[in-house]
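Q: Protein A?
A:
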Amino acid sequence: MSIRVESDALGEREIPQGVYWGVHTLRALENFPLSGLRWPGEFIVALAQVKRACAETNAVRGDLPEPQAGALIAACREMEAGALHEHVVVDPLQGGAGTSTNMNLNEVLANRASEMLGAPLGSYAPVHPLAHVNMHQSTNDVFPTALKVAGLRLLLELEAALARLQESMQEKERAFADVLKVGRTQLRDAVPMTLGMEFGAYAEAVARDRWRIFKCRERIKQVNLGGTAVGTGLGAPRDYVLRVVGHLGRVTGLPVSRAENLVDATQNMDCFVEAMGMLSALAANLLKIANDIRLLSSGPDCGLGEVDLPPLQAGSSIMAGKINPVLPEAVAQVALKVMASGQTVTLCAGLGQLDLNHLMPLLAHEFLDSVRLLRNAVRVFEEKCLRGLQARPRRCRELVDSSAALATVLVPALGYELVEAVLRRAEASGTSVAQTVQDMGLADAGTIEELLSPRRMRKLGFSLGEYAGLRAAARGPADSVAEPEAEDTETP
């Protein structure tokens, strides 16, 4: 393998000839062989855009002359388009508050720009990683700015995915509006409702999450680019500090703005804690919805079986024909991971010390990973599970008819004690509540059907007129209803 020799303050090192990174990256590779993880493409693109905004600002000011400026900006554009990502190799878990990743980018961009100008890799004569690529910058303003740019873009994608999920939930709400089912509390039969109502509640929860994600973007749009090491702008011209964020906005197309207090924006990371709280709220809703859908689809023969999920893959290596709710299960795991990451981000923000948060790499990785996971999970949940989910109306009605859920509907007209007597008789005779009510002469089949109609389920509260067929029966005392005699089971 051919090599080249590069040097830094610690001495000379051999670098593989074909790579675009250099000696600073090599030392980071040797020092941090920790997770084996890589930075996501969204973060690499964001870093390249930050570098381009800085280069454009320096070029406009005349601090970065041609042809270096043109070559560097072109190299940044290539990285923004997806090239050179394989050369961003430093482990996200690293010391130095992100310096190793910043230098990795500086070396890759410098080598590519130098190559465009006809120089060999590692020469850094036309374009230098520090003198040109990192001009008027510090890791401490570049790294968190790139994190916010990547976060804003991912949050926009997450918000769009949530919009589609909400629409799917609302479509199911309409489609299942007349599917009568048993509502459940504490996993026990409660009162009748419609399947559409359940999905309408899910849609409302997702709508709140969409609003939260919008507010989440508001929390992280202020950046500290131009603040350099601690937010004072030391080492950067004042005109550069005032102009660079404007260039970043044009490069990214995002509504970024310069933080009013750059020192605060450099050392304090509470905006990410707040954002992770909103992501955790979304994760909690997804976890609840995913688990509900698993329950509603359970069985289907020996469980609730009120909905059918699209069959996606074989569910067992031994049980032929078994299909599992794999998408809700995967979404639940994403939700748990995001909740755990929220705690990590909180700790990272709280453990930052003095004028810089040294735990920025871990915070950045966990935050971006959470948004990416949620975006992907919401997408596949909507596309592969919710969109093809079907109701089982016959099964839903079968469970209503065999449940005591009707009893609560009767309480306003018959009274609590009389309904208890109805339930005792139904249990003793082994007949449904509806049939028992008819057998006791308290209502006819038409009255019961009207009381259980989906239209009535969607109506808030009740009116006495709805119980006209039951009001006369309510005047009798509960104990006037005779209990059925026990069957004689003795052998003659």
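Q: Protein B?
A:
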Amino acid sequence: MLCWLTSGMPTYTPPPWTSRFGVTLEGRESLAEIAVLARAAEAGGAGTFWVASHLFLRDPITMALVVLGATTRLRVALMAMSPYAMHPVHLAMAAATLAELHPGRVVLCLGAGAPADREAAGIAAPQPAKALREALLLCRGLLAGEAVKLDGDVFRTPGQRSLVGGAAAVPVVLAATRPAMLRVAGRHADGVLLSGGSAPAYIRQCLDIVGEAAAGRSVASISLVYAAPVASAPGRAAAIAGVRRRLALVLRGAHHAPNLAAAGTVLDQARLMALTQANDWNAALELITPQVVTNHAAAGEPAELAEAFTTLHAAGLDEVALAALTGPADILATLEAGTRA
């Protein structure tokens, strides 16, 4: 593969942009609800609002614009935009246009996309490590104000045009789990976003791979963390039900076997996969024991949340991106617990 820019590789390095906490959004909420959630995140001290790109849900670019318009300082990360579903040139265009309206408040996160979503849309995803590497190079070059010439295995651009608005100070992050993708993040991205359900020991393993590939280059470290505040013991089971369901969906994947091993988690992944595919959620959730939740999420009363967050930051995370929170009250309660960490 041959890749170069009109004036060499981009030298843009984003200023420090991560915060100790972010909040994530899936896109199932109405646009009016999204504005309310964004204001709660900002009021609670979150620095980034991670807007998910799930096919068949709400458009992430529109959601990002709603969040930016509803807040005054909150950054918005387009997460994790797939170059298979939208060409990298268009991804860079979207990020740069949002940044023109809200300078310094936009982050672009790339990822291969959820396999089930891609399958439902009939989108193939060949050579993911190469495709994401090429997409990263193309987006970073365009956002640095360059005309990018790229003769890749997946993407090709002749280098005839740059973005009309010129350079845009937009960090480009890669969502990564497997070693090959972690190395791509280390070599080329401004940050790495680790999978939800990642245990602290596994986070350290992943960041070691990123750091080795980065060879001294600064790469921000972020991880999705399924979280649930629990006000009192009697309501604990109901409060963490959503976290358990998320963990069931994520940890069933074979690629999470190293994550489970790093945490010392005993979980029958094959049975969990079969039960979730059969929609037998009662049986599936029985496999997500309290110990699994403790190992792979942050759920509990304020002191328990604070302890979990302290451990996650100690594992090397710059930002904990809180996922699975169900409303403004949950966002505020969880962020308040984070101030104790």
